[in-house]
């Protein structure tokens, strides 16, 4: 996820005046510091959720953002500079819709950071819709941060967790994040627990062994690139969302991949991603499929 591909060395974080957005700014500032990148804080005065709220609530939300925008940006910038003194911080107030703006920026920035939900009905719907839409459509990794996300800037020794699917989409980014933080990586491959209902015990053991070998084949090239990263791996039986959420309780970052699969498989993957984004105890980094090398 380095920016050697021509993208700007600037993390873009979206804010809306909520505590969740400020938590996202804290995380983004720390990430920018460890990578020695710049940080751009973005607020859209045109932001408004598309469904679920009355016209009056939507207009009220837009007016609040318009009249309070500069103050929101100043507070966020002060927070960023407090967390990561030395990081170049800039702010931007735009009249363009926030989702469209972030998706467009994702083509030329190495990372987008958003909060999971805003404050109040309007801003909860706003940030919730933003995080869902941007993680689906962005061309760069997107970090989703909860207000309750547990992380300690600069002193967090907990591991990075990566959910490894058949494509291995997020493995490279997960190794890079662990290396930057100087912590271990815990790789988890999830298998449907219903498998056990269709095979004998010895066949289940063979299936588990095959999955473990497949997981190791995905991890080995990256571990050779990042030999300093302590690595643990496991194959778990159970629903992917349940397994990843449990492992994320003791992690500082959860990394998952994104796919454009359709049909029942695509629906299941989107459901897993949505559950993880809304319920994880730590920030979640969603990596698009094209980010991994060939």
Automatic annotation (TrEMBL):
InterPro entries from the UniProt entry: Rossmann-like_a/b/a_fold, Universal_stress_UspA, UspA
Domain UspA: residue ranges: 9-146, 160-288
Protein family according to the UniProt entry: Belongs to the universal stress protein A family.
Name of the protein in question: Universal stress protein
